[in-house]
Amino acid sequence: MRRFFQESFNFEILLWIGASIAAFVAFLIFVPSVWNFSATAVTPTVRALTTPRPTLTPIAKATTNLNTPLESIRTPVPLPTPFASSQVFSFSADLRQSGWISDKETIPHFGDRSLHAGTYRGQSLQTLLYFDMAALAPGSKIGYAEIELTGLNRNNLGAGGKWSLRLLPFDLLPGWFSRTTDDLRNARPLSDIGLALTPEDLVEGQINQFIFAPPQLARLEESLNLTGRVVFRLDGPLGADDNLFTWDAGDRDPTSPHPMLRVLAVPGEFVQITNTPTPQNVLTVAAAIVQGTEAARRYGTSTPLPRKYATTLPLVVISPQPTPANTETVRAQSAYAPAVALTTGTFTPTPSNWVTATPTRAFISVEQYTPVAPWTATPKTEISRLDLIKTPFPQDAGLRGKILFTSYREGAFNPQVWVMDPQGNVLGKLADDTYYRIAENQQLFSPDKLFHVDVQKDKDSPVWNLVMFDITQGIFKPLVKGAGGGGIGAYHPAWSPAGDKIAFVSEEKNVEIWSYDVKTGTPKRLTFTQFNPFDKDQIGMNKNPSWSPDAKQIIFASNRDPFPQYQIWIMDADGGNLRKLSASAFDDVAPVWVR
């Protein structure tokens, strides 16, 4: 009996072992077909460590390994066809009142060319856009609106997140420059504009569009009617990792990509009223003061006129200052202006309704008021830089020795090329910018046309450097390495007609004019201004130097006056005898002295 149980027990063990083997085989066959396990091991994704990035303001070279955008996203949506009685209005962002803010700083960065939004090195950054729409009358009916921004830098872009444009409330506009970063960061937006952007939408040199929906158009009309101004904040993603994109704010050069607000609207009408006439004598002034004081005592202070009322100024025809006949007269006039400034204060700018009556010629348009045929020029076409350099300046254009410059005296959105003589007398404007582009490009060449000066970035450098191209050997030679100093380096070169020096702009410390001695290889600073990068108007910037045909003087654009407008200045080649050449209430920029 014991042997029987022993054999039965051994048989039972064999059965259990066989059943276990059969179950294991079934598991191998059945389970993978149900759960679809892969035969290979899964390799975990390893995230690369964040590498140090360049500073914010300088623009570094683009990377190409992040989220290549789709072609359909890159292509901007065209403006719709204007409907009955509608017009297209384009408003460029006010560069002096736009910029970016950081949660680690209390002062906004107004006037910066770079518009940052996102996270960078533990700080959160947001872009501010300020548009002045005062040229569009209240009561205008807006049927379409969009904001366009051009990408500038994606080096610090992450793989996710969203960027949203938001309309800020109107009560931020009074005292805009006195607003702190906290005021602007914590302001509750009235509305989001268009669709949020993702990293796939963000490309250097490509346009991002924020298209207004109907409820957002109503908000835009409300802002237009109340103030004529509108401000936006562009918010990026938050987080510990770097995820920053930078758009181009443009600069004073009208050809650079500025943030634009484009509106399709049926414009309203301003109510034209006449200003109170200027008092004829002191007694009339005294009586008006007594009247105004009594009215304020009885009825309170005057209510400002609504925006729909516009005052008109009668045109006043004045005689232009004659061109000095000799150098002694020029010196006397140059000494007279500082003497007046020291004794009685600076000159009052010429009122915008004063018209200079200058004898007209067939190719001159006097100021912006006289409807005379403007300076004729070749039809404007797309001409390459090389073709412009090869094109000789027309001898019969009447512009040799004159100064060409870009001015906004016909409106902030209508820059034109104007002409002045070396004494600062404005002679007229050009029909187009062809002559200007020829003169501008030719000053990049040495007088013998064997060398070409230009700007260039090193492979891993965020700032621009001055380089010289030897045409005979086909090689580049570095001249000035842009130190940057928080700016964008060295730029705006112009070769002296004498061939020995190159004038340029450097942002090593302030935005100043320098000259480079071609023979000795040494740079020399020519202008010295007090410049604070946090100044609300960035007063003290000097740009676009250009040499006189005899290489004895240099003109440039500067806003060194205590007013934000750029004007044309002139100095001797060594930086001495500095004086202002233009005196208008408008931005006069980018001068070129025709050789």
Question: What does the model show?
Answer:
The chain has 595 residues and is of the alpha+beta class. The chain has two domains: 71-266, Sandwich (Jelly Rolls); 338-593, Neuraminidase. Helix content is 18%, strand content 29%. The chain has eight helices and 31 strands. The chain has helices at 2-35, 71-74, 181-186, 214-226, 282-299, 327-344, 385-390, 434-442, and strands at residues 87-92, 99-102, 109-110, 114-120, 123-132, 141-153, 163-167, 191-197, 207-211, 229-235, 243-248, 260-266, 271-274, 309-312, 316-318, 354-356, 403-407, 416-420, 426-429, 451-457, 464-470, 475-480, 490-495, 501-506, 512-517, 523-525, 542-547, 553-558, 567-572, 579-580, 588-593. Strands 1, 2, 3, 4, 5, 6, 7, 8, 9, 10, 11 and 12 form a twelve-stranded antiparallel beta sheet that branches. Strands 19-18-17-31 form a four-stranded antiparallel beta sheet, covered by helices on one side. Strand 4 (114-120) and strand 5 form a beta hairpin. The radius of gyration is 33 Å and the shape is globular.
Tell me the layout of helices and strands.
Blueprint: H1 2-35, H2 71-74, E1 87-92, E2 99-102, E3 109-110, E4 114-120, E5 123-132, E6 141-153, E7 163-167, H3 181-186, E8 191-197, E9 207-211, H4 214-226, E10 229-235, E11 243-248, E12 260-266, E13 271-274, H5 282-299, E14 309-312, E15 316-318, H6 327-344, E16 354-356, H7 385-390, E17 403-407, E18 416-420, E19 426-429, H8 434-442, E20 451-457, E21 464-470, E22 475-480, E23 490-495, E24 501-506, E25 512-517, E26 523-525, E27 542-547, E28 553-558, E29 567-572, E30 579-580, E31 588-593
Parallel strand pairs: 13-14, 15-16
Antiparallel strand pairs: 1-12, 2-3, 2-5, 4-5, 4-11, 5-10, 6-9, 6-11, 6-12, 7-8, 7-10, 17-18, 17-31, 18-19, 20-21, 21-22, 23-24, 24-25, 25-26, 27-28, 28-29, 29-30
